[in-house]
Amino acid sequence: MKKECLKLINESEKECFDEFQKIEKICFDKTKKILEAFHKYEVCENDFHETTGYGYNDMGREKIERIFSEVLGFPDAIVRNQFVSASHALSVVFFALLRPGDILLSITGTPYDTMHEVIGIKENNSSLSSFGIKYMEIDLAHDDFDYEKIKEVITKNKIKVIEIQRSKGYSTRKSINIEKIKKVSKWIKSIDKEIIIMIDNCYCELVSQEEIGSADVDIAVGSLIKNLGGGIAPNGAYVVGRHDLIELVGERLTLPGEGREVGPTLGVNKQILQGLFLAPSVVASSLKVAILTSHVLEKLGYVVEPKYNEERVDVVQSIVLHDENKLIQYVQGIQKASPIDSNSIPIPWNMPGYDDPVIMASGSFIQGSSIEISCDAPIRSPYIAYQQGALTYESGKLALASAIEKLIVEL
Fold first, then answer.
1. Is this structure's pTM higher than 0.70?
2. Which residue(s) pair with 376 in the sheet?
3. Which of 8, 238, 288, 330 could form a disulfide with 79 if both were Cys (CB 3.0 to 4.6 A apart)?
């Protein structure tokens, strides 16, 4: 069956050529931008040296943070291996910026599942809610911001932080592009310039010609085991933004009075820098695999989002399977073609931080890395598979063949 699957994929590949060319242009431009940042801050071999203990005077760490702020278009950055994940970084940012009595407003509906206990949507004695921080949310309207409702809420309430989650998470909506964020940010600031606009930027870096720093937002968060880690960074996350806000984040990550001055890198600087350098190529591979997946699965009769020739905002490809068994088979097909743990069979389980049982395929070199080929899904109707990543286009193509082989009997 694999040969027939590859034949179908090869036929689709030809029809994706124009979209692939667009991705390769962005990849070249992003590589140039990152290389220029390396040159500007004079990265050298000495920057790979590790610090231990408190991590004082780590010059490599400081250069990494300048480079990230440059690449993403912000005045300042904190990039640390002390962040366990992007969810951890988001939690740190919330607790850094919000105080008892403040209000957090999401204008992209309910955030990703791992934020529910952080915010207090799901009860937890360590949540923002338990500290007296209030939470409100506004759903999107027709895949755009609900301007009328936002105005109503921010004129009636003193909102401290507005959160925008760019990627769709486990929802059925479209991901949010930079133009829409530019427009809503300018509009919000015209009503109340004191509101802090915070972006969950996961899965979106290096996908478009512009980065989130061009959107006039105050702070943004992302993971190093997603796009910007290039499949090399072993863990960590970044926060970019205004200098005063980054200082608050540093003091919440470590402790007041020491903040960003401490944090041993333990030899990870080389991997972070090398991962960032490789990231445009890895993101391009991921996007090409997502485009190819979209084209092939639509040919097979499934609903996909986005379609192969639509604008890409992130590296995530959704496939609506409308059948629990097909969903499980597809995810298991991705795992079977993974370089690590290919002999493992993913099954749904009650994963910490998620509201529904979740099935995850991630046979990756870095545990939980979603810039490597991976696919996951909550076990709930309409049974959508969320596929992302591919360190190389060729390995992603083989994973796609393995996954569709599980779905079809004959072509």
1. yes
2. 360, 386
3. 238
